Amino acid sequence: MKPDEVRQVVRERYGKFAESAGHAEDSCCTKSAIKACCAHEQAIYSEPELSSVPEIARNLSRGCGNPTGFANLQPGEAVVDLGCGGGIDMILAARKVGAGGKVYGVDFTLPMIEQAQQAVAQANLPNRSVEFRHAPLENTTLPDACADVAISNCVINLCPDKNAVYREAFRILKPGGRLAISDIMLTGPIDAALRERLEASWAGCTGGAIPEGEYWDTLKNAGFSEINIVARHLLSDPELDGMACCPGKEYTPAPAADDLNGVQGKVVSVKFTAIK
Ligand SMILES: C[S@@+](CC[C@H](N)C(=O)[O-])C[C@H]1O[C@@H](n2cnc3c(N)ncnc32)[C@H](O)[C@@H]1O
Which residue is closest in CA terms to ligand 1's atom 26? Predict the structure, then answer.
């Protein structure tokens, strides 16, 4: 698929998913982020974190980690959430940076932004500064050096031009600013024909995943240094099954069983930080 076709498919699938938010319990992804398609079998958010966000943000949560849990956010900091989805990490970030801080959410799927706006409005965040950008991560429309921290949760694997995304993240961070990212990668290269077939399920978080080595080169080429792997988890077979059809089987058809077998034991969920 060409990059623009990939973006179109991803936007359509996440758009339909966002529009279903009112009856998300009918989807494959049950009541909360704990059992979300993209989550690990174990919970990725604590119970107090989950109970502090509105139901709409919990239902739309499709992360593979908890970036605000390792971003070391400080009161007064400005944070950008790259691919904010239904807003769960924005809300958690807004609580940490407080009234003197700022949170931007960027997503190219309009229904997702609309749901996230509603979630933020319901989240009881008095005096918080929260702004949205309906834009692609390759061109967020944010000003240069506007953020101390860029977080992202299970999004950059979906982007066909990861170099452009990380160049843009570098541009919007202040000097010394940091990344705190949770993403999906491959342990190494896979057969080219298999990779092409998996791309058909690009919205699922395996279609666009690249090998770890290539991923770190992308970060370094954009100018980032001090890459620090906070956690690395090899997906189990059931986790891979869920991940491959994110945000849900009714939006992203599951890859053929043989193709999924071909990447079993080769897909990792990685949490890392890096510095501009
Ligand atoms: C798997 S969901 C994760 C959402 C959120 N981070 C979370 O943890 O729930 C991926 C989100 O990234 C957005 N997205 C994917 N590719 C994008 C791109 N190139 N530019 C902007 N948003 C993108 C989708 O619209 C979707 O809302």
Answer: 85
